Fold each of these.
Amino acid sequence: MNHSTDIEIPDDPWMSHAFISKLMTQVSLPYRKPKTNEIIRKNGTLEVKFTGGADCLPYGKYPRLFEMWACTMIKTGDSCFNPVTNTLNLGTTFREFLRLINIEIGGRQLKTIKPQLERLFKCAYFISNNTDGRSNGVNFVVADQYQIDWLSKEPQEHALFENTVQLSQKYVDYLRDAPVPVDLSIIARLNSPMSLDVYWWLTRRYSYLRERQSMTWNQLYDQFGSDASIRKFKENFKKAVSDVRVVYPQANITCGRQYVMIYPSDTSVATTAQVREVESRSRQIRECADRDATLARQAGREVSEGTIGAVLERLDYGEDYVPARRHVVHGLASGHTGDQVVAAWERGERL
């Protein structure tokens, strides 16, 4: 349905990061048990209707974590996923995945996970992205079939984690459509489902955001959804943002009275482009330092790094670190004082 490209990231150690579906960064499943068996979420022209099975819709943290795990297994080509049959083996990989995010499986957790996963497997997605001139949509159920022994008479290590779920083809396609990399160390420290939603919504936005963007509270209410009033939603959202910023401090977001504003920030998992930019900048700084040392020797004046750093701190150079450093080194090596070097920079003169 979408013709987007993946967010490219470097090859990191296994399970240093995971992937969440792009759709889950755009709209949200319920946070509490909903009163109806279907909900509608909106984000711009995107509209998604989630319809539950005979019980109710999936809600809370565990359906989100399962979808993140399934998306990660499919994206990374893990052996627990069979791409021919679209079958996921809920073997030890799922258990280990939950342990990575500080969730241990026991009787209490199992009673929560079991119905939530069953609800997710039976859930249907109706996705449309319509404009005045074009209609575009896709509909699917999450799983075609599943076979899970919920520890009836088996030891824990030989039951829940040795079962399978056959995902529908369209659901697999949806998980493969430009999934968003997320940091597992951050996921492990977020307890509420809304904080998870806010986290991966922000990190995807930051992957392409180039200028400040503002959203009304009503827009966010339609996107994230809530069974509470808009006033209560604002409180919950602000709390989720506060939780996210503790573990993702580079996230630049402001919650105002009328609008929520986000500003260009680093993604939580560095993209390949970001890594290359940092490496290129580091290389330029090293090369610049080497040239500066050579120039200083040729001028017969040794300029210490401490002296260079002290003068640099007085310059307002923004992103122009390399030109500013060259200006300082050349000025000091030529016999200018630090004050003279600073004054020349402020006048726009380059030494």
Amino acid sequence: MQNPPRVLPDGFAVPDAGTGSPAAILEETLNGLRHFRLLAAACSLNLFAACSEPVTAEKLSTRLGLHPQLAGLFLRALAARQLLVEHDGTYQNSPFSARYLDPSSPYCLQDQVTLQLHLAGLWDDLLKILREGPRIYEPEAWFSELIIPAMAANARCGILQKTVKAVSGLPEFRAARTLLDMGGGHGLYTIAFCQENPALNGVVFDLPGVLPATRRYIEYYRADRVSCIPGNFFTDPLGSGFDIIFSSSNPGGKAPALIPKIRDALRPGGLFINKQGNENVLDVPLMNLEWNLWAISGVQKEPRQYSFSHSVPFEEYNRLLGEQGFVVQDVIALDEQSIMTIARKEQ
């Protein structure tokens, strides 16, 4: 018996696609990957260093070892993304690339692209991770090799300057002589604070495996009043008598268990300055999934990005500061994603 012919759904009626064509929506999804791989390949080739001055596609192809025909298409695609400027057969960095992608720029974000490449690899392995669980990293290697360079690059592009401007306007900052940067990582905040206050001596407190990266930044900026102390702020003493303790975007920044240790490390009247992510804009489902594709050995994370099992919400943390010997003087929104508490230890 012959099978009857199959009939198209609803004859030739066009299905309601809602806000747009289904094919166009899928194509737009793929475009995000195309754009990122285009940028990542250019960074890996060190193309933005090669395009600091106008150069032809032929010369770039030879210099970078590229297929001649594909090189031209590659450069035109970068120009279409406004990462290069094409003029009279030559290519040169766009203003954006000259500032943020040329390695000679102090605002270069290529370390951020390196981290994004690593995260892209997690998405490439999404099916395996969904079945087997998150990829586990040792904390010191994860922070020193990927997180700290990316955070330093991002900090230099604006949030560092905004933070230093807000802190340097405090009367207590001008009078301060000692500052502890708790979990300070790259140390750029302490370096900048010491540049703003010539009488200030700063200490970056972080894991032993992280501090070699910190010392590279200290050496690069010739910050001779910044030193390092190795330790784990959850288990080791912080010291005592500091005028200021600063904390920025680290796992201890909203941990109530650390409040007594922070209080005891400050002199009476000293400041605890705590910069954290704005929780109101960080609860994004796609980013929450990415946050949970990887884990740090020995650290228990919560499902929402940048949250940990030992942490509490920002407002509750500030309330607990007030109950444990601090007066919260101000809460400053530095930008859409960052918020900073200024708390003074009671006399």
